[in-house]
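Note to self: keep these together.
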Amino acid sequence: MTHRNRRPRGTLTGRLVGALQDWSVPRQLRGAPGHAKAAESAMSRGLRPRLEQADRVGTSICPYCAVGCAQLIYARDGKPIAVEGDPRSPVNQGTLCPKGAATFGLMVSPGRLDRCLHRAPGATAWREVPLDWAMERIAQLAKRSRDESFVSRLPDGTRVNHTLAMASMGGATLDNEENYLIKKLFSAGLGMVFVENQARV
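Structure:
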């Protein structure tokens, strides 16, 4: 029976015997001393915390809603390697919701846009444009649409001062102050009726 345990690990039987010997459940059932040691495996003994690789830790605020959960950004060689909740914060006390916990993916995703793209009417391809040009273009088109569709009074004389040609869909990364300003600008300033937020969808 002893010779079976000496079979080369490269064979199927050898790998099976090795896996059974490394399996922690039999050791725990036998009552092996030390709970942590009894539950160890060859793989778990070699594991190291990913945060151990960081050479710098910065602080940030979660970008996803207006709660303002504090985050710790762990970086190595100037690049983020992990995002955790900040336990010093009285707001979230080190915890993060699923969206906040996904902040790392948002930061390093190769699909994340970090520049302005514009597709002209009738064009089939996007082109990169400067931010200043894009903001000016948006302002001009918004004013033109508002001026062309603005209604001061209904046929019965009721004053409405609104436009039905424009709408706003806010995102869940906007905080309370930004949403307040958006509502004031779009409703009171431009007369937009349709002002909604993605967080309600």
